Amino acid sequence: MFAVVVVLAVGFAAGAAWAIPVIQRDLVSKAADRIEAVGVSGVRVSFSGQDATITCISPLKDSAAVKAAVLDIKGVRSVGLSSGCATATSTPTDSTTPGTGGGANSVPDAATTVTPVVKVVPDGKVTLSGRVDTAAQSDALVAAAITAFGSTNVTVRLTTNAQDGNQSDAIVDQFVSLIEVFAGRLKSGTAGVEGGKLFIEGIANDSSAFSALTIAAKNAGVAKADIALSMGAAEVMSAAKITVVFADNKMTITGTAGTREQKLALFHAADDVLSVRDVTDSVTLADQPVAVADADQMAVEDLGVLIRAMPANLLSGEVGYDGTDLRATGVYLNEQSKLVFEAVAKGVGVTPTLTARPGAGQSEAASMQQQLNDYVAANPFLFTSNTPGLLGGSETLLDRVASIAKEFKGTVIEVHGHTDNEGDAIRNLNLSQARADVIVFELVTRGIPPEQLFARGYGETRPKVPNDTTANRAINRRVEFVVTAG
């Protein structure tokens, strides 16, 4: 097995001159788009293989959101932050009790000196009270409240500690961003900073307002346990019952959603990690438009998190929501993928039921080899002339090959590249090696553990048919697989 890993590394080096720079440029472009979409600028993303590094001009307010946005990209394995990205917040702990500090958005002790609170009552009147460290912080909070509710509706009872506010500026800025979305959405409630972390509780005007407030709270850094939003009892109707099945690198979403926004959120979650053609959306909407229950809205958002985690970590799986509880089951690829999926599921309050994929014996390895070679014989990989670059339309082929290759653990899969006899023999040998390397790279990005893959080019030395006609030469330009039980 050690030899497999070593040869794979050598193979990558041989083919990287053509394939890997193109892939990395694509990852950089996608990462920049995702980061911009979460409202962050002034950062630069670079890649070493599948590992991203984010370099910042100034500290990030929400580094977790930035990392999550890049990790959502298919093919990205890890995301690291340069020292310039460090925020003023401290390392998260497991505390989830509102107002006690140490939660997901906790900050250094200096920030516990700030305790600004906004209280909204049903008649639209607002009271801004508590303590801040600096006059600038007070001004920012008052301006946000006045913008949201109007100057005649805001009563200010803030006090200033007259301290250096450098360490508390970050959490006050997060609170300002939350206040800015209250207008027309928060019917009544309270939000603020307590024990060094943000919280929000109250009643939203309607389902759309509930969704907007929930998203704004998460973007501001409020821990899930510290979001206590609801709607009036007359407005609430539980309508969401969703099942999402992942198998053969395809995803099917069925059930009922309370709103069109919920339906779209589920589809977009699947589209983030799979091609559109591999997602079947059969979700229907409730018979009549309803105001969605807060539990339903949270469940749909949490389902999106589980959906995004399935393709990279599971051979197959199912997640769903029955109107009351979330669930998750699946077959994991390896121990690392099991740990990753369990951590993701725990983050949304689910304990998944996971089983290992079956091991392969000689008969299973032979069956896999037959399936792979039959498929690529009927659907050959096509490369641009004299390069290892795959032509358009190869995504479907790669997805299917990856699906077959994931079926059993304990296999070693050799990817063999072959050419016809036209041109220089040494160049043909190098070209066939580079093409095999590209296939291996693409399979790794689709979740095949790299230790299972081995790339080798044979050039023109192993023709399948005589190189005496154009048709025969096309047959000899091929990719084949040899599978053995590890």
The end-to-end distance, rounded to whole angstroms, is 8 Å
CA-based gyration radius = 27 Å
Query: What's the story with the biggest beta sheet?
Result: 6 strands, mixed
Strand residues, percent: 15-25%
Could you name the CATH topology of the largest domain?
A: 60s Ribosomal Protein L30, Chain: A
Count every beta strand, where a strand is a DSSP E run of 2 or more residues. 18
CATH class of the largest domain: Alpha Beta
Number of domains: 4
Chart the SSEs and their pairings:
Layout: H1 2-15, H2 20-37, E1 43-48, E2 51-56, H3 63-71, E3 78-81, E4 117-120, E5 126-132, H4 135-149, E6 154-160, H5 169-179, E7 186-194, E8 197-204, H6 207-220, E9 227-230, E10 241-247, E11 250-257, H7 260-273, E12 279-285, H8 294-313, E13 314-321, E14 326-332, H9 335-347, E15 353-356, H10 362-378, H11 394-405, E16 411-418, H12 425-445, E17 453-457, H13 470-476, E18 478-485
Parallel strand pairs: 2-3, 5-6, 8-9, 11-12, 14-15, 16-17
Antiparallel strand pairs: 1-2, 4-5, 4-7, 7-8, 10-11, 10-13, 13-14, 16-18
